[in-house]
Here is the input.
Amino acid sequence: MVPTLCMLLLLLFFIIYSVSMAFFILYYKPQNPNYDVKEFAVKSFNLNDNTLETDFKVSVEADNPNDKISILYEKGSMFDVSYQGTRICSGSGPEFQQPTKNVTMLNISLEGKNDLNSNVKDSFTEDQKNGKIPLDIHIYVPIKFALENSKSKIIDVMMKCYIEVDSLKRDKKSKILNKICYYKVNF
Here is the structure.
């Protein structure tokens, strides 16, 4: 008798859970946010001896396609740019709430001062001469989904972009020649 009661309670729980999930999906129609690197600008780029000092600005477009779910961008985001596996600058993004059906441009300042080995320095110099500089952009942003009076747990958004720019000259917006971006949202 007891195992049958337990099975009925378990079945009832499963039915209630399934119905509530179906209601959530049908009513809120949740969609993942979309992200894209739109611009890459150089405020400063100084390569002296083997020391590289950088100050870049990366513009990332954040698109919230949801009708009924806003997105809370939490403290702790990390943005960095690497060249041949060497991080050359980093920064963080703002905390804010993105409304429903909204596209927001995030302009992120990234600064760094690093010692480069001679091989990386020589590659940088050669790529700069050729007008094709490959860079990796790594982005981590903790977000929460907000619906009506409740918020989700923190969800990790991770993005990796491989871009190739034409130049890293001071006070110039670099032309993005090639770009491949991947991102995932970890629930």
